Structures are given as structure tokens and as C-alpha cells.
Amino acid sequence: MGLHLTQILVRPLITEKNNLGREERNEIVFEVNKAANKPMITDAVEQLFGVKVEAVRTIHHKGKARRVGKWSGFRPDTKKAVVKLAAGETIDFFKGV
Q1: Widest pairwise Cα distance in the chain
Q2: CA distances from 18 to 2, 35, 67, 71, 79 (A)
Q3: Can you tell me the distance from the alpha carbon of 83 to that of 64, in angstroms, rounded to the nearest whole number?
Q4: Amino acid 94: pLDDT
Q5: pLDDT band per the 50, 70, 90 thresholds, residue 92
Q6: Whether the Cβ atoms of residue 57 and residue 63 lie closer than 8 Å to each other
Q7: Which of 57, 53, 48 is nearest to 8 (CA)?
Q8: pTM for the whole thing?
Q9: How far apart are the C-alpha atoms of 80 and 34, rounded to whole Å?
Q10: Does the N-terminal or the C-terminal CB of the chain have fewer CB atoms within 10 Å?
Q11: Is the predicted pLDDT of residue 55 greater than 70, yes or no?
């Protein structure tokens, strides 16, 4: 049971810190499926966006414990991927805006 290309990348994470990484180091950050590995992430980015990927780093985040009134629970665990693009390659998320 493999993941389809569109199931690997959940969404791009666009923050101030990630925008600095994109401008200075040509890195894009995505939230990815927890079952995805580095070769799967590389293939998905290259095929979906038509760019060349140099490297991928992954980060696992455990969900924080949260309370709302008398109920307690956890936020979901997530996985991020920092994708370094080759020189001259870009992905523009706000092309039509």
C-alpha cells in the first residue's frame, strides 16, 4: 500500500521564518504524511512542481497536551520536510494572487 503523490505533501508551511529560508537558502518547508520517507518526498516535489531537489530533511513533532475546561487531550503529531531546491529553481505559491 503506497502513497499517491498527492497524499505525500499535505500543505506548504508559509511563515516568516520559512520565507527567510526560501530567500536565503532556497529551502521550502512542507507538512508531509507521517508515513512518507525522504525518497518519496523528493519524487513528489519533483513531479508535482517540476523542480530539481538537492536535499530533504525531515522533522517529527509530537502533539502538545492541551486542556479545554475539564477535557484534556493532545494535538495531533505532525511531520515536516525541509526541501532544498537546486540553484535557479523556485516554487511560487502565490502566482495567481
Answers
A1: 53
A2: 29, 23, 29, 33, 15
A3: 25
A4: 77
A5: confident
A6: no
A7: 48
A8: 0.88
A9: 9
A10: N
A11: yes
The three cell numbers of residue 24 are 536565503
**Order of all β-strands in the sheet with 78-85:** 9-12, 27-32, 78-85, 53-61
**Contact 58/32 with Cβ under 8 angstroms?**
yes
pLDDT for res 95: 75
Place of cell 523528493: 42
Integer Rg of the chain from CA: 15
Res. 29 pLDDT band, cuts 50 70 90: very high
- Dihedral sign of CA atoms 39, 6, 10, 34 in order: negative
- State the SS3 of the chain: CCCCHHHHEEEECCCHHHHHHHHHHCEEEEEECCCCCHHHHHHHHHHHHCCCEEEEEEEEECCCEEEECCEEEECCCEEEEEEEECCCCCCCCCCCC
Of 65, 91, 63, which Cα lies nearest the Cα of 78? 63
